[in-house]
Design goal:
The chain crosses the membrane at residues 21-44, 50-70. Keywords: Membrane, Transmembrane, Transmembrane helix. The protein has one domain (10-78). Helices cover 84% and strands 0% of the residues. It is built from two helices and no strands. The chain has helices at residues 10-44, 48-78.
Length: 79
């Protein structure tokens, strides 16, 4: 694959890398915060905060993996 019209640039690849790092960081922060939330959910007997926390972890990981895949494709095309 080649990029004849020069649509994929270094700044675009850098932006995707920043998105990837940001969403992986969000997922890691929520993974670390889940332990305190589990204790609080037991005290309050409320499962909703735990469900939201798990949703945000999965969302962060999913977007991070997508951005990682997109970054690899863009690097392959630009080379």
């Amino acid at each position: 694959m080649t990029d004849h019209h020069r649509l994929i640039t270094r700044s675009g690849i850098f932006a995707v890398r920043i998105i990837k790092i940001s969403f992986y960081s969000i997922a890691v922060i929520y993974i670390l915060a889940i332990f305190g939330l589990i204790a609080e959910a037991r005290i309050l007997k409320a499962p909703a905060p735990l469900v939201v926390e798990l949703f945000l972890i999965i969302l962060g990981l999913t977007i991070g993996v997508f951005a990682n895949t997109l970054e690899k494709i863009m690097k392959g095309v630009s080379e």
